[in-house]
Amino acid sequence: QVQxxxxxxxxxxxGDSLRLSCTASGLTFSNYALGxxxxxxxxxxxxxxxxxxxGDKAYYRNWVKDRFTVSRLNAENTVNLQMNNLKPExxxxxxxxxxxxxxxxxxxxxxxxxxxxxxxxVTVSA
Length: 126
Known about the structure:
By secondary structure, the chain is mostly beta strands. The chain has no helices and eleven strands. The strands form two sheets. Strands 2, 4, 5, 6, 9, 10 and 11 form a seven-stranded mixed β-sheet that branches. Strand 4 and strand 5 (46-51) form a beta hairpin. It is globular and about 40 Å long.
């Protein structure tokens, strides 16, 4: 079965950094673009960042572009989200997702991803 397992969430203070990781199994990792989404209580899921199959292209939501970095390690079936200078408004459950695509440089920014992880909680105190 396809599994996306996330780790790295936790409770931090404003201004701290956090590194989220997502490891996939049950799929050919290099065939998938990968994305990160988040959802705060009472709010809709929103796009954060995504990276292409090749790892050469990335796309960020404008409000995280200068603070967050997405990267992938295909040999380890892992996608990471490095989050710096965290703010209380970053508090949410963060989800990773995998999108099957034949295009090596395609960066999906919609919500129609093929597989989703279970999410990891990130809480940022003021």
